[in-house]
Amino acid sequence: MARVLIASDKFKGSLTAAQVGAAVRAGIRRGRPDASVAVVPVADGGDGTVAAALAAGFDAVPLTASGPTGEPVLTAYARRGDLAVVEMADVSGLVRLPEGRPHPMTATSRGTGEVMAAAVAAGCRRIVLGIGGSAGTDGGAGLLEALGALLLDDEGRPIGDGGAALTRVHSIDLTALRERMDGVEVIVACDVDNPLTGPSGAAAVYGPQKGADPAQVAELDAALGQWARRLADELGSDRRDVAGAGAAGGVGFAALAVLGATLRPGIELMLELVGFDERLAGVDLVVTGEGKLDEQTLHGKAPAGVAAAARAAGVPVIAVCGRNTLPPERFHAAGFAAVYSLLEIEPDEQRCLSAGLMLLQQLGVRIADEYLPGGRRVTATVSEQSGGDA
Fold it and tell me: Is the pLDDT of residue 67 over 80?
């Protein structure tokens, strides 16, 4: 009996990781009814991180927290024992901006800190924090305030939300934060190595993606620099140039400098959480994927991490995606035996979005037919489809 493990990320804006896995599984079972097919959704620390943890057996802990513009949002963290998985994208992320309108100068990370504080209050002593997809560039100040930090202006008032407010920091009191976070280990899922400030810093590189124009980028970069100096005065060391400090609008900096966090590659961390290596035992084929397979995929994205882990275990890996821009020599070098894209069998992009589940099932049939011993064609329609990269 052939054994297949499907470990795909989401198709962003279209399908969740669980939906992708279920559709491919259905197709493989159509092509090979006797195959054993397991689905393990994965993520790289951005949106879908909590969902992946829940699919791996964690419990959901729902709560309400502040969104990036201060409005309340219903979110959740995932818990197993004393370990909590917190997803910044789901509370302080771009997807939580009201009507999708950016607020580059005032968006806050406070809600993410509120979720962390709730997990600590509930007894969690280890927190995995996925920080992809953030909406703001506040240097993690909002997160720290939610954990108990006092950030006051020269008149003793709270500085307010967002990166622009960082220029008003006059005094910092971390007493309550240190009491709350004493003995709590924070691990940040992070795939970027940007420093906090400068031409490759949080504002310059990621600010435009969050709606900042050139003048606002310069203002945010200066504000982050002032924030770093104030914290350095308080802590006795300046962490602005540490790799990863610029992640998530500077949340990486706050986590490193104040929370003593460890930064780890997102997919590597998530594969550990879902027990991926253990699930590989006895598997004949791994299927992974994401919405678009491109050069960025090869630099820390989920499919590349899955391929590396499977290849290390001697298990062949293929990928499914909506669109593939990698030539065969590139995806072969990354460990993929083949890549199947929806656009191979349906050139209309809108139909790929609207009929993605059906098309993924068709790809699943092809995978069973072409990569599992004893596979068979199920329908003439599927058997006549031709593929490009596969």
Answer: yes
